[in-house]
Specification:
about 230 residues; about 20% strand
Length: about 230
Amino acid sequence: MDPSPLRAKILETIVRKSSLKQQVFDNTFATFNELKDILFEMSSEWDDELDGRIDRRVRIEYRDRGKFETQFQVASDLLIFRMHTDVFEFDANHLVWQSPYVQADRDNSYCGIIDIYNFLSDSFKFNRNADEGYLIGRIFINRERRYFVEGKRQTSMRPIAFGRAAITREALVGILETAIAYSLDFDLLTPPYEDAKRVTVDQFNTKMDNSKFVTGKRLDYDFDVEDI
């Protein structure tokens, strides 16, 4: 018995989209592993270059946290890189739809994502579970290893230029150095006095539970996405 036209269409969609999304995932995963290698090399090289120039308590350290997460500590800043295991398409208002590359073939719009977060290293050291981190960058990679970047100071490949170049080691180094430089300049601000003037007895009696006191670089201040 021949399948109905709708069933045939469903099966064809499964074949096409599963192959497409698997290719996107493979490219993103390969890029993430290359990103890990670069961070590992950076930590070793920078540690050697800074030897004798800074206090030994200041750390440059790389930590592999599994297949889809890695960390890079620079002094009091911790950058967390996380690859999402799913594949995404963009909402109708995203700038990527203005790219001629995407307009030529919608399949080019499906992307994997690598997120870059900035935390205070002390938030993890002292288990301050309520502390806030900030998404400072996102790398998008498609089936042809074409890429673009969103984030603070990330200007190397904007969405409108999507399709012009494949992701390379050189491009990754530039993205990583930009993210690290931004994090070092993104200083911790004192919270407004009005927001910190009252605490409860419970907070002080349980002060060993550091999550009672929330810390973040821009608590109660705007964290705009003006660079995105």
